[in-house]
Amino acid sequence: MPGSGRLATMPGVFVPGLQLCRAFYAEAVRPLLGDVPHSGARIGPGSEVLGFDTPRSADHDWGPRLEVFVSPADAARIPELDRRLAEHLPRTFHGWPTHFARIEGDGSGRMTPTDGPVRHRVGIATLDGWCRDRLGVTSGTVLRPTDWLTLPTQALAEVTAGAVFHDGLGELEPLRAALAWYPPDAWRYVLACQWQRISQEEAFVGRAGEVGDELGSAVVAARIVRDLMRLALLLHRRYPPYSKWLGSAFAALPLATDLDPVLRGALRATTWREREWHLSTAYEALAAVQNDAGLAEPVDPTTRPYFDRPFQVLKADRFADALLAAVTDPAIAALPRVGAIDQHADNTDLLIDPPRRQAVAHAALSSEVGSILPVVE
User: Fold this and answer.
1) Among 71, 78, 139, 346, which residue is least crowded by beta carbons within 10 Å?
2) What is the DSSP letter of 150?
């Protein structure tokens, strides 16, 4: 539906960014687009897209901004539309500057008063071009299950969260619906690889502590806590955001009330046995959620000794085995247990660069399943 209604706020008083952007589209941007068919939304990078913005967010890349998508037939008009907005947008909107001065060093922008044309943050593009830049695929691409594994969960969250103010082209909402969640077998595979990650280190909390390395034990425990938080989000069909907002996203889950104190306990613990106890509680809670999801045959959710060593573990690979046994797609079943791109790579500069991350995915996943995605030229 088209954006409508006026923003009820005092000038310059902080409001959630999506609310500000919706009003900015309806009151200031849309009237300047005239009869140009378009879609308007606030998606992509930005804390307001995920709903986590605060007054602190206003120091950079936050303010009256949005994305406008035009059809390929109108792509040649993008420079004209950009100039029209620069010349005719109000210099402030409800007390917030609409001009963004470039911040040296990182390319971001900060709201700054101006007396001249507005250097606005209304991005105008075709949906295909925007998707290629953000995802490495065009908007019309039908993703095979293996194709999903080249897409970081942060990128998927940025496309499917936020808000659509108007979908005059009729393409944006179907795209968001298509990317709303993994296909079932891809979901099973990603979950299996998350359990596999946990299985690779769960015994190290005790082993490091046993030799007197409590710092090393704590580092391993912190890594596992991060993996458990991501696992909890995946089990609840939520794309885990990048590290800054991982805790905020986790806190919104229904199980966070019970699990948050346990994970905090693991991080605060000063001995490996205390860490292990808290982690064991978290393992069993998430194992029960896994069983209740019905994605695979149930697995005994209780922890147990690690062979004949005095360490309590879940043996999380049992859950990976069960999930992969339920996969019916032979292309997914043949994959090694390395997971989606952000389960085996966490370098930010890599993950925001579609051609590079696609190349890494090609290298990490078995070539026997065939081509995953063409590297964008």
Assistant:
1) 346
2) G
